[in-house]
């Protein structure tokens, strides 16, 4: 793309957001869990999502990754509307649900790491990391093995590749889970409380890997209660409560919250 078009496309000559969330709602039965979320995530940045249990943080991540369908609103990933296609009927655009293949293609841009690592217990670390590239990405086994080795080295597990999950600490298992997500070469990584299930002494090694992945330029959205990590690594802080974004800003808002609700929440976690 030449300079002029790039400038036009981006408006200001800057980058387009990697994720745009516009007035998103989610209703489960009679529960209105997300009530109009608006959020932008710039490429190569880290957004930390904070908030009390039940505020809708996991649901938001699951909508971004299309593990759930939204009730209303739009989510764009890399400029592309997720889940739907706009069809121009001549009488204005109509939305049509994407088929499974198109959704799988959109989802392949996003890697996700959960609180529980969900590794396959009967497979070694290496086999766990190779699994999706071979069976989903249709990568030849020898290439997938090389890639998995590289990703396990990246998370500092070069000497644990042939261990089974039960032979690894929780921190090591979570690092395998991160390597497994990275092996699919996502543009965006979502982390849902990746250290909440870990013994305190194992939290640091996982946060260290996440910090390194961030420094390598990954776009990340991280739900976490680790305020030190949020303050030091995230460019954007989002505080959610009861399905809305109550407060949003740079990492300074952790030390200088603008709302009573965020201040109150910080007292419970700091
Ligand atoms: P958080 O991650 O901030 O703790 P969640 O997004 O997990 O919050 O949940 C927000 C609310 O949505 C909770 O009240 C939860 O019970 C409800 N919820 C989440 N997933 C479902 C589901 N699949 N079906 C029904 N209710 C759900
Ligand atoms: Mg959650």
**Class computed from helices, strands and strand pairing:** alpha/beta
Radius of gyration: 19 Å
* Order of adjacent strands in the largest pleated sheet: 8-9-10-3-11-12
Helix content: 25-40%
How confident is the prediction overall: mean pLDDT?
A: 94
Question: How large is the count of helical segments?
Answer: 10
H/E element sequence: HEEEHEEEEHEHHHEHEHEEHH
The shape is globular
Number of strands: 12
Give the ligands present: adenosine-5'-diphosphate, magnesium ion
Report on the biggest sheet.
6 strands, mixed
- Beta-sheet strand percentage? 25-35%
Summary?
It comes from Bifidobacterium choladohabitans. This protein has 270 residues and is an alpha/beta fold.
What labels would you give this structure?
26% strand, 270 residues, 10 helices, binds adenosine-5'-diphosphate, disordered N terminus, binds magnesium ion, 6-stranded mixed beta sheet
Tell me what the structure shows.
InterPro entries: AAA+_ATPase, ABC_ATPase_HisP-typ, ABC_transporter-like_ATP-bd, ABC_transporter-like_CS, MetN_ABC_transporter-like, P-loop_NTPase. Its main location: membrane. It is found in: Cell membrane. Keywords: ATP-binding, Cell membrane, Membrane, Nucleotide-binding, Transport. GO terms for molecular function: ATP binding. This protein has 270 residues and is of the alpha/beta class. It is built from 10 helices and 12 strands. The strands form 3 sheets. It has a 6-stranded mixed sheet with strand order 8-9-10-3-11-12, sandwiched between helices. Helix 4 packs parallel to helix 6 and helix 6 packs parallel to helix 7. The chain is globular and about 55 Å long. The protein binds adenosine-5'-diphosphate and magnesium ion. Magnesium ion (MG) binds next to helix 2.
């Amino acid at each position: 793309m030449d300079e002029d078009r790039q400038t036009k496309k981006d408006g200001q000559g800057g980058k387009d957001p990697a994720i745009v969330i516009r007035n998103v709602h989610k209703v489960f039965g009679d529960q209105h869990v997300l009530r109009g979320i608006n959020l932008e995530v710039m490429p190569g940045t880290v957004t930390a999502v904070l908030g009390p249990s039940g505020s809708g943080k996991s649901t938001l991540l699951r909508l971004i990754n299309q593990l759930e369908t939204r009730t209303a609103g739009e989510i764009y990933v890399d400029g592309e509307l997720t889940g739907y296609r706009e069809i121009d009927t001549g009488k204005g655009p109509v939305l049509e649900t994407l088929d499974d293949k198109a959704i799988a293609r959109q989802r392949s841009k996003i890697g996700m790491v959960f609180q529980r690592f969900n590794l396959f217990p009967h497979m070694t670390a290496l086999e766990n990391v190779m699994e999706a590239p071979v069976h989903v990405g249709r990568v030849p086994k020898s290439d997938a093995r090389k890639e998995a080795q590289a990703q396990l080295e990246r998370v500092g597990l070069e000497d644990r590749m042939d261990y089974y999950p039960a032979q690894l600490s929780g921190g090591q298992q979570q690092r395998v889970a991160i390597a497994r997500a990275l092996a699919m070469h996502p543009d965006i990584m979502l982390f849902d409380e990746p250290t909440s299930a870990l013994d305190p002494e194992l939290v640091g090694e996982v946060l260290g890997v996440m910090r390194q992945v961030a420094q390598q330029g990954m776009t990340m959205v991280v739900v976490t209660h680790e305020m030190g990590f949020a303050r030091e690594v995230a460019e954007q802080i989002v505080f959610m409560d009861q399905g809305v974004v109550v407060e949003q800003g740079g990492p300074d808002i952790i030390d200088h919250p603008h709302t009573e609700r965020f201040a109150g929440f910080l007292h419970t976690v700091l």
